[in-house]
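Long-time lurker. I teach an intro course on protein structure, and each term I like to show students one example going from raw sequence to a predicted 3D structure in token notation. This year I'd like something fresh instead of my usual example. Would anyone be willing to generate the tokens for the chain below so I can use it in lecture? Attribution to the forum is fine with me.
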Amino acid sequence: MAASRVDDAAEKGRLLDEPEDEGSSSELSGGRTAVASPVHRLASIDIEGLNEIDVEKKAASTLKRPQKNGAKLVAWIAVNTLATIGIIFTNKAIFSDPSFQRCQVSFASFHFFVTGLTLFILSRPRFGMFTPEPARIKTLLPLAIAMSLNVILPNASLQFSSVTFYQLARILLTPVVALINYIFYSTSIPRPAVFALIPACVGVGIVSYYDSKAPSSPKVKSTSFVGVVFAFAGVLASSLYTVWVSSYQKSLKLNSMQLLYNQAPVGGVLLLYIVPWTDNFWSVNHATISKWMLILLVSFGT
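-- Reply from a regular --
Happy to contribute to a lecture. Here you go:
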């Protein structure tokens, strides 16, 4: 009996000396401890497991999100590329027709009015694409002039040059925009980017020289000197317009659609004052229906 009592006392002392398991007991008032029930332990384990599942789901969704964004980006780049190619060849088909060779300004003015009308419809509450914000015409006047030149000069270049030269000349937009930003806004680009633009500029110069030479075959479409002048002037106007759009958006606190909604009608009205001295409408009466359909396609597509 005595031996068993001693053994029981020793066992109790050993149990008291051992540290308590964290989470298995909680201290009560008076120094007493209460052991957590198995149900509480299972509940805490389930909560921890759910938290781990939530973390895994969030991590998986975070990994999938960049993939979806990347796929959308590639899709929109492809759509933009195909639309640009289609517009270029459509414009070439329109201005190759003698009926529209002397209607460059009218074509641009019509395009601006259609753009303004389209944006007006998209701004209505039924569509709600954007909320119109007013801007002063006097403030928008320089930007509207640059936008008009951005359309007229490239179209004139496309009339007197080949599609290949026209498209290659547009490559100069990037270096010219970088140069304008550096001169007027003291914004520089990384040196590797500068080195990457040099071959592009050299390539455009080589193509300009050889494409403007007399063709060896009458079937080969070459670029005239007038086409080269219009092309480089169009690049300069487009670059200036690109820089100004960014500057106007920041100063007026407008997004791209709000800014275009204000400037498109202004540009269309400005061009109407030039039409009587530049365009010839006598031959438009002989234009085919297919050419008019192409004009509507380009106007709504851009």
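Some talking points for your students: Residues 54 and 60 are 10 Å apart (CA to CA). The two ends are 103 Å apart (CA to CA).
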